[in-house]
Specification:
The chain is of the alpha/beta class and 273 residues long. The protein is built from seven helices and seven strands; from the N terminus they run E-H-E-H-E-H-E-H-E-H-E-H-H-E.
Length: 273
């Protein structure tokens, strides 16, 4: 079933972290299903350019909304811009997150062993991944609750469910220079807890709150890492960036209308063993 067959025509969606690898795919999926999309990320020029790309690709409406999601007035400004343009808000996808990656580790201590991981990175991860999600749910979800309907999709991770397998980052000679941190799985575990809380809190107001937990996405990583990840996965490969489109549109739309407080795991079987 294609995402286009799960119609979101006439609905308005907000996607945070929208100009990143998966954020772009999420926006294309929602726009392809008929939704108007607000593109939220830090860079104003990138947001505006990508909103134009969505309009050209799908023929619908899109709006670039640059914002720091850890700043309450900035999140309020996104809410006001969305309501000012479309007068409604139906879907919120909390995708923005800090995640140190093996293909592009940050140069400020990310990727270090647990014993050396900087406190400031731990705290920054919680501010973006948890507080940012909290603020967007609070400010934008309240609009949905006030209108009596809406769907919030919080992007979590398989690492909210299981610990990172550090052997993936170990070279054949036994050396290891990159370690997946404790910050990312800890923050994503908190996102799952917030998802369940809000599902119970807003259920009677017609707002559904679910999580989507993706597995690792192939994105130019070292071939050895990709091979190790594939060997560890029942389907025998990493995800392609568009492997989550159908699941996202399903959670956003009426096909999942009796689903809330759930975590939809799309990971090629990673967490099955």
């Amino acid at each position: 079933m294609s995402e286009g067959s799960l119609a979101l025509a006439g609905r308005v969606a907000v996607v945070t972290g929208a100009v990143g690898l998966l954020g772009r795919r999420h926006c294309h999926a929602l726009a392809g299903a008929g939704a108007a999309v607000a593109v939220v990320d830090l860079d104003p020029a990138a947001c505006a350019a990508f909103a134009g790309e969505l309009r050209e690709s799908h023929g619908g409406d899109a709006l670039g909304c640059a914002a720091d999601i850890t700043d309450p007035p900035a999140v309020d400004a996104v809410r006001d811009a969305v309501l000012g343009r479309w007068g409604r808000l139906d879907v919120l996808v909390n995708n923005a997150a800090l995640d140190e990656k093996v293909e592009s580790p940050h140069g400020d201590g990310a990727g270090l062993p647990f014993e050396s991981f900087p406190l400031q990175l731990w705290e920054r991860s919680f501010r973006v991944n948890v507080t940012g999600t909290f603020l967007c749910c609070q400010r934008l979800g309240a609009v949905m609750a006030g209108s009596g309907a809406g769907s919030i999709v919080n992007i979590a991770s398989t690492y909210a469910l299981v610990a990172p397998d550090q052997s993936l980052y170990r070279e054949p000679d036994g050396t290891q220079t990159f370690f997946k941190s404790a910050a990312y799985p800890s923050t994503k575990g908190a996102v799952l807890a917030l998802t369940r809380y809000l599902a119970a809190y807003w259920g009677r107001e017609g707002v559904r709150v679910n999580a989507l937990s993706p597995g690792g996405v192939e994105n130019g990583q070292d071939p050895g890492f990709v091979a190790r990840y594939a060997q560890r996965t029942p389907l025998g490969r990493m995800a392609h960036p568009d492997d989550y489109a159908g699941a996202l549109v399903f959670l956003a739309g009426d096909a999942s209308r009796y689903m809330t407080g759930a975590n939809l795991v799309v990971d090629g079987g990673w967490t099955a063993w």
